[in-house]
Design brief:
With 319 residues, the protein is of the alpha/beta class. Helices cover 42% and strands 16% of the residues. The chain has 14 helices and twelve strands. The protein has a five-stranded parallel β-sheet with strand order 2-1-3-4-5, with helices on both faces. It is an enzyme of class 5 (isomerase).
Length: 319
């Protein structure tokens, strides 16, 4: 990289250098990676991840990714570990230590602690002959690739490779555990991720909140039911089964002699419905596609279970 390069040219060179390093890491991933996964899956406690400086930031992210994908994990700061937090690390745990050089002084106490209590230690480092690598039970070696910064010193390529390797560890364990969308939802109840995994059953209205009429219900009572429940729709139910719906549109289409009719005479039969176990995003898609604002939820037998309104989906963050 030279000062004559444009910012875009510099960016492309940085990405090229880091991409080449990732390819080297992928192609050189040792078979002992399987042994590391086996070791970590057998842990009865937590996977402790630690590093200093930029490696510490990467370690914290790796621990967070593992924790959210089914592997109990925690980041421990090496400085705090030397002042009491070593007590967090037990013989039920496994430890992953990250150091590009393998000689980070601040990791010495954690290394000694793992050796003293026979705690499995995984080293992520570029130096196979370093103190960390020699002390570890398992070594995951980073490629000997140049840093992408102009002076070749700021952690760039090395941290990218470490982060990718951490993702590989987390995802491999996730898949070996059979971790599914439902499990992910349990760890991500908030935000956009949580909203994407919400089920209809988690937000739908039930019981007395549902606007329900019978086929013989007169229109005066039907209008009162629709107005009281406030969804702009009523379910035509027979023996608990959803038979039809009455919407504002049905009312407008039958204005002539409306009050002399019954709910069954103006209802739309065989209406669209959805399973309570369906994703809320799927329900929103159905409502948007068919330009309706509410959708009744029924079980496999056609029994009415609830109602989801488009506002429920939007309030939950599904869009």
């Amino acid at each position: 990289m030279t000062v004559s390069q444009t910012p875009t040219e510099i960016a492309r060179e940085v990405l090229r250098i880091e991409a080449e390093a990732l390819n080297t890491l992928r192609d050189g991933l040792p078979e002992r990676f399987d042994q590391v996964i086996t070791e970590l899956l057998q842990v009865r406690g937590r996977v402790i991840v630690s590093g200093m400086g930029k490696s510490g930031h990467i370690a914290a992210k790796i621990a967070a990714t593992m924790a959210s994908t089914g592997t109990p994990a925690q980041y421990v700061h090496p400085g705090e570990a030397s002042h009491g937090d070593l007590g967090m690390i037990t013989d039920q745990d496994a430890v992953i230590l990250i150091s590009n050089s393998g000689e980070t002084r601040e990791l010495a106490d954690i290394i000694a602690h793992t050796r003293r209590f026979s705690i499995p230690l995984v080293a992520i480092t570029k130096k196979a002959d370093s103190t960390l690598a020699q002390q570890a039970d398992h070594l995951l070696e980073l490629p000997n690739a140049p840093e992408a910064c102009a002076i070749g010193m700021a952690p760039t390529t090395s941290t990218t490779c470490t982060l990718a390797l951490g993702d590989a560890l987390a995802v491999a364990m996730m898949r070996m555990r059979g971790f599914e969308r439902e499990n992910f939802m349990a760890f991500h109840p908030g935000g956009t991720l949580g909203a994407q995994l919400l089920k209809v059953s988690s937000v739908m209205h039930r019981g007395d909140a549902l606007p329900i009429v019978a086929a013989e219900t007169d229109m005066g009572e039907t209008l009162l039911e629709m107005t009281a429940k406030g969804f702009g729709v009523a379910a035509l139910v027979e023996n608990g089964m959803l038979r039809g719906v009455i919407t504002d549109g049905d009312l407008r289409r039958n204005l002539d002699h409306l009050m002399s009719r019954t709910a069954g005479e103006i209802a739309t039969y065989n209406p669209r419905s959805i399973s309570p176990d369906a994703l809320l995003s799927e329900a929103l898609g159905v409502m948007n596609t068919h330009k309706i604002s509410a959708l009744f939820a029924v079980d496999d037998a056609g029994q009415l279970q609830g109602l989801v309104h488009i506002h429920d989906a939007l309030r939950a963050g599904v869009a």
